[in-house]
Amino acid sequence: MAGIGFNDLAVAKRLKQIALTPDALSGDEGLGYTDAYFVRTPPTGIPAIVGTTLGKAVCDCYELSYDDATGDADLVATTDSDDNAITVTVHHAGGTPIGGDTLLIVAFMYGLYIPVVEYCL
User: Fold this and answer.
1) Following DSSP, what letter does each residue of 24-46 receive, concatenated?
2) What is the CATH number of the domain that holds 82?
């Protein structure tokens, strides 16, 4: 998996601080530390909106891992204490499906995770 690097050390350190934790998944606050998160779509992707019903799929969460020695930040799968993937349901309002195994940035809006950026890896 390709990593995403940041040239600004302060940005990379801040992104490390907003890493996801399993305890943050409860309640209406979303995942806890920010309003935007990294996720990867399942192999089947996320379907497009049909009428007024948004497409949805369960996606794996990712967090940033920062290396103080190199200054690199990499995305790594987020797991709980038993090494199970942490997932969220992502709702998609776009008119075309989102492909499988696609990295997204999703925002927590109105109690739902909505894609705002799609990366083609």
Assistant:
1) GGSSTTTTSS-SEEEEE--TT-B
2) 2.40.50
